[in-house]
Design a protein that fits this description.
By secondary structure, the protein is an alpha+beta fold. Helix content is 32%, strand content 21%. A seven-stranded mixed β-sheet has the order 10-11-12-1-13-21-14, with helices on both faces. Strand 3 and strand 4 form a beta hairpin. The N terminus is likely disordered.
Length: 556
């Protein structure tokens, strides 16, 4: 770790020296002298994960080191779930279906075919005869049934997508390669959530069940049939995945799949950028606009330009403290300077008018009238609240190292001070925020959160964040509860008629905006960059990434 920090420091020093007019040759001399003074031989090679060169941004030996600010805290396929965890789960496990592209399109994986009846209540899943686990045993309908039931029993992670419409009797084996799923009630997007049923090997899990049904074992050990095995685990530092040489599935669009994948925790954007420039990292996420702009001028890198479906909002605690007052929430909305926020993004995002991205047609309700920056209106709203004089403090929690979240908080801090409201920014690690979101009493008053796209349907955003049954998850950290919204959301997910669904979701959006459940800020163009040797399905609209669609190719 000392060498790692020093290497970054030296690279940063070289940038500074070059900026001051020194030639690259002279800058190297100065940096070399500093290295010797620090106890590192000037000509000695430094070791990086995957054996990467520090002098080039190109990936060596077909190794991809991904620099991310977020840990893979729980790889259990049925209890862990977030952006970084999804990357690891997809590497270790096959799912029933998979997404490809942006926007995401369903593709076969374990299932060669999935069909539903007219009202979306009964689904037939055909298992691909070729599918195997990493120990060579066959993936059959009984194994998929076992995974459905473990997910429902644990009732964690992605279970919320399945548990409202399934129980232990829903999935039944029709024949060795066919599963029939009879839902408790119709669920229109059921096939869209099947990419989140990761299939573990029942024999391996049961052999390592321990006292918690395998949760401890699976947290940091793979037991699936995916394209990679887990060879190195250093929590809060790095995770290494090595290619499974007997993997059964071949993507026809990928000729040279990644052989070694390293997830390396780097929280600061500038450190990520410098590591990329030094050849230590081949892909960096959640960088600042300034850092991706700098990388865009370097021909060794590709900067993402594709908009995502990841609405960013500031969650407001609807159950505890001053933000439980709707007029306080409206006052905060009127204090947020959207124009300045968009300037900070420098064109890499579009403002939101409500919980859905304005580009998410036809589902976004174009008639929404949101509250916009208006200090006079903010004073009026506050006067109508239980706190007419202000005189209260709100914690603003944001993820450590994500500077744009911090900057949004500072915008609010400055504006709120004029109304005698104190906003206290608090950088927090993502797993710590997830834990605090579990109850209204521990959830922050305000929290910066990007909504993950698990499936391309309005149910993904609206049910997960605003149905009262979801309160306590990170996506529902606002602890919003409205019986009318609950009823509309259930109606919308149980009808297959698109016109009826649109009308129901429009009503939900209108109520949420009237209740000012959160501060909806923008839909992002993800600030990510990668080396030009990587190509394929680089940025998906669905949360996380899938190495099955990414390849390494030498570029002249």
């Amino acid at each position: 770790m000392h060498d790692d920090r020093l290497r970054i420091t030296l690279t940063r020093m070289m940038h500074t020296l070059n900026d001051r007019g020194l030639s690259r040759r002279d800058a190297l001399k100065v940096a070399g002298t500093a290295a010797v003074a620090s106890g590192i031989a000037g000509g000695a090679a430094m070791a990086f994960p995957g054996g990467l060169s520090r002098s080039s941004a190109q990936a060596a030996s077909n190794t991809l080191v991904f620099g991310s600010g977020q840990d893979m805290s729980n790889l259990d396929p049925h209890t862990g779930h977030d952006y970084s965890i999804a990357w690891g789960q997809r590497a270790l496990y096959d799912s029933v279906l998979r997404y490809e592209g942006n926007p995401g399109v369903l593709q076969p994986l374990i299932a060669s075919e999935v069909t539903g009846n007219a009202d979306g209540s009964v689904w037939t899943i055909k298992i691909d005869e070729r599918a195997t686990f990493q120990d060579g045993s066959k993936v059959d309908a009984a194994a998929v049934q076992w995974n459905f039931n473990r997910l429902l029993t644990k009732n964690l992670g992605v279970a919320y997508m399945f548990s409202p419409v399934m129980d232990a009797n829903s999935a039944q084996v029709t024949d060795p390669q066919t599963l029939t799923v009879t839902l408790l009630s119709p669920f229109a997007p059921f096939d869209l959530v099947l990419p989140w049923l990761f299939v573990a090997n029942p024999a391996v899990v049961e052999a390592n069940a321990g006292s918690d049904g395998g949760e401890t074992y699976l947290r940091s050990t793979g037991a699936g049939g995916g394209p990679y095995t887990l060879s190195r685990v250093e929590p809060n530092s790095l995770y290494q995945f090595d290619r499974n040489p007997t993997y059964w599935y071949a993507n026809p669009n990928v000729t040279t799949p990644i052989q070694t994948f390293v997830w390396r925790i780097i929280r600061e954007s500038s450190t990520k950028r410098i590591a990329m420039e030094a050849g230590e990292v081949q892909w960096g996420d959640t960088m600042t606009v300034e850092d991706v702009t700098a990388l865009s001028s370097d021909p060794r890198f590709v900067v993402n330009s594709a908009p995502a479906l990841e609405p960013f909002s500031i969650k407001l605690n609807n159950k505890a403290g001053p933000t439980s007052d709707v007029n306080v929430r409206k006052a905060l909305a009127a204090l947020f300077d959207y124009e300045s926020a968009m300037s900070l993004l420098q064109g890499r995002g579009a403002v939101l008018n409500g919980p859905l991205a304005t580009s998410f047609t036809p589902w976004y309700d174009e008639t929404l009238v949101p509250i916009r920056y208006d200090v006079a209106a903010a004073k009026t709203f506050l006067a109508q609240s239980a706190y007419p004089q202000g005189d209260f403090e709100l914690e603003y929690a944001y993820v450590t190292g994500i500077s744009i979240e911090e900057q949004f908080g500072l915008l609010l801090l400055s504006a709120a001070a004029g109304l005698n409201i104190t906003i206290t920014p608090n950088p927090i690690l993502w797993p710590d925020f997830v834990a605090r979101a579990a109850t209204a009493e521990t959830a922050p008053a305000m929290a910066a959160v990007y909504a993950g796209t698990n499936y391309v349907d309005p149910d993904n955003y609206l049910y997960a964040s605003y149905h009262s049954s979801q309160a306590g998850s990170w996506s529902a950290a606002s602890h919003y509860s409205n019986p009318q919204v609950d009823d509309l959301l259930v109606q919308a997910r149980t009808t297959t008629d698109p016109t009826q669904r649109k009308a129901l979701y429009d009503q939900v959006q209108q109520i949420l905006v009237a209740d000012q459940a959160e501060l909806w800020i923008y839909n992002e163009v993800a600030n990510e960059a990668w080396v030009k040797e990587l190509s394929g399905d680089m940025v998906q609209s669905v949360m996380g990434g899938d190495l099955r669609g990414i390849q390494y190719q030498v570029v002249p």
